[in-house]
Design a protein that fits this description.
The chain is 29% helix and 17% strand. α11 runs parallel beside α16 and α12 packs antiparallel against α13. The strands form five sheets. It has an eight-stranded parallel β-sheet with strand order 9-8-7-3-2-1-13-12. Strands 14-15-16-21-18-19 form a six-stranded antiparallel β-sheet. A three-stranded antiparallel β-sheet has the order 4-6-5, with no helix packed on it. The protein is an alpha/beta fold. It is globular. Among the domains are: 310 residues, TIM Barrel, CATH 3.20.20.80; 65 residues, Immunoglobulin-like, CATH 2.60.40. A hairpin with a 5-residue loop joins β18 and β19. The protein contains 17 helices and 21 strands. The two termini are 24 Å apart. The protein binds 1-O-alpha-D-glucopyranosyl-D-fructose (TEU) and calcium ion. Calcium ion (CA) binds next to loops.
């Protein structure tokens, strides 16, 4: 029997609102811009939109530093615009999920401002600590390459921030924080939102604040990743709020292992529906993303295969607003741009699990074309640039790290057309548009049957109409030298995906008639191109 949960059937499309579509010429994407593209998204075939944060925020971390959980940033519009977006999306049978960022708030949040002044009930809303003889309370380091205690003059204590300085961590040992966060969830669910992408959800509960074992990055993390306290908290959110609605949750879970993931998504435990794992995104680095390592297709495939077999239901994604563009990273955006974009699409959309596409991926948008730090806006990139400078790393290496891994690679504005600023804005974009918008853009691809965009549309239509691709079991058939083949099977019907991302010609390990082929073949046999994929029936 098909599992009919809507979030298992639908493809999710992530919108980074700042960079999607600007309706009023101020250079910043907005909710009316999103509304104007709903027909485009419907035609693409996606069934859920995930919006990165649209709440009021000083934007130190582009909206992941929230100063009011129940409002809309004026740059994006108003609550009425959000209501309209929900109505218009639902009319088209598209669901909307919002980013729920509850590990931390912005410093500008009223809760923090009152907590600094010890005004009840906010006094213990954050993780405050006295220093040790004029030194920071512990040796922990942040996700953004700094230490993570900041002194607050007014309160006379340090506060913990696992991300930027302007993102103080909430204290879940304080019961009124739990209540307040539950009210935030109810506020949006009652307005018609269909679920949440839960930012760094597996680090909410800190077991202790003691010194951590020194690590090249994230010293202290053994005290807060997937703790028992976290499981209790998530179960409570689920019981008190989530089970009361037909909603979907996907947790962003850093450093998660298959076992930890299973504990979070196992339906019997009642915590989250799905999680994002990171392992396949770490196949081109050592330990953290900045320690560059040559991308190995086989390592990538093995990792995907491992997760496919260790969890009953995964999420699959190759891009988001924190990651470089997949065509530049796992493909070849110079010699085989379209071929590698289509090949990666075929892999992504035929694996088992809820699939996520990030805005622009469907046209094969590439990494940014910046030549130095001047146009870079991301707080993490600037912190790392400064840190590697203090460590006296050679400038060329520092720039290579940024160029390959900066989060701004994914954040350049959506390329709608070949016109000025890619048709994203009539004003000055908040982040420069890639100059390749002249050739890589929606309008040009719209006209061309063989384009990446039209390939995505056909592939999505195939998946939306196929119980095998949606629900079928997963079995690895072949994995070697950049070639990967796996089988999906459902009620006696079987389909096989074969991909070659080796960058060289390879003999296909399996032959059969194509349901879809990046090369437009009717039958797959003999040699495969350096980047080629097909879904076949044997
Ligand atoms: O990201 C959490 C996270 O750990 C990373 O992916 C991180 O952003 C970084 O790239 C590590 O090198 C989430 C959000 O997706 C991210 O945009 C926010 O900056 C972060 O949480 C803080 O809210
Ligand atoms: Ca705007």
């Amino acid at each position: 029997m098909a599992d009919t949960k809507w979030w298992k059937e639908r493809i999710v499309y992530q919108i980074y609102p700042m960079s999607f579509c600007d309706s009023n010429g101020d250079g910043i994407g907005d909710l009316q811009g999103i509304i104007s593209k709903l027909d485009y998204l419907k035609k693409l075939g996606v069934g859920v939109l995930w919006l990165s944060p649209v709440y009021p925020s000083p934007n130190e971390d582009n909206g992941y530093d929230i100063s009011d959980y129940c409002g809309i940033h004026p740059d994006y519009g108003t609550l009425e615009d959000m209501d309209e977006l929900l109505r218009q999306a639902h009319e088209r049978d598209i669901k909307i999920i919002l980013d729920l960022v509850i590990n931390h708030t912005s410093k500008a949040h009223e809760w923090f401002q009152k907590s600094r002044q010890r005004i009840e009930p906010y006094t213990d809303y954050y993780i405050w600590k006295k220093g040790k003889k004029g030194k920071k309370p512990s040796n922990w380091t942040s996700f953004f390459g700094e230490d993570c205690w900041e002194y607050d003059e007014l309160r006379g204590e340090y506060y913990l921030h696992l991300f930027a300085k302007g993102q103080p961590d909430l204290n879940y040992r304080c019961p009124s924080v739990v209540d307040a966060v539950e009210d935030v969830m109810r506020f949006w669910l009652d307005r018609g939102v269909d679920g949440f992408r839960c930012d760094v959800i597996n680090i909410l509960w800190k077991n202790s604040l003691d010194n951590g074992k020194w690590k090249p990055a994230l010293t202290g993390s053994e005290h807060y990743i997937s703790t028992d306290g976290l499981h209790r908290l998530l179960h409570r959110f689920n019981e008190d709020v989530l089970t009361k609605y037909d909603c979907y949750t996907v947790g962003e879970t850093v450093f998660v292992t298959p076992k930890m993931a299973d504990d979070l998504v196992n339906p019997a435990r009642g915590e989250l529906n799905t999680v994002f794992s990171f392992e396949h995104m770490e196949t081109d680095c050592y330990f953290v993303k900045w320690f560059l390592r040559r991308f190995s297709p086989d390592r990538f495939f093995s990792c995907l295969s491992k997760w496919q077999t260790s969890l009953d239901w995964n999420t699959v994604y190759f891009e988001n607003h924190d990651q470089p563009r997949s065509v530049s990273r796992f493909g070849d955006d110079i010699h085989y741009h379209d071929e590698s974009a289509k090949t990666l699409a075929t892999l992504l959309l035929s694996l088992r699990g809820t699939a996520f596409i990030f805005e622009g991926q469907e046209i094969g948008m590439t990494n940014f074309d910046f030549e130095d730090m001047t146009p870079v806006r991301d707080v993490e990139s600037h912190n790392i640039w400064a840190l590697t400078g203090r460590l006296r790393l050679p400038k060329a290496l520092r720039w290579r790290m940024i160029k390959q891994k900066s989060r701004d690679n994914a954040r350049t504005p959506m390329q709608w057309s070949g016109e000025a600023n890619g048709g994203f804005t009539t004003g000055t974009p908040w982040l420069s548009v890639n100059s390749n918008h002249k050739t890589i853009n929606v309008a040009a691809q719209e006209e061309d049957f063989g384009s990446v965009l039209n390939y995505y549309r056909r592939l999505i239509a195939l998946r939306n109409g196929s119980s095998v691709l949606k629900f079928g079991s997963y079995k690895e058939l072949y994995l070697k030298d950049g070639v990967f083949a796996f089988e999906r099977e459902y009620e006696g019907e079987s389909l096989v995906t074969v991909v070659n991302i080796s960058g060289s010609v390879r003999i296909t390990p399996l032959v059969g008639d194509c349901l879809i082929s990046t090369e437009g073949r009717a039958r797959l046999e003999g040699e495969m191109k350096p980047y080629e994929a097909a879904i076949i029936r044997r």
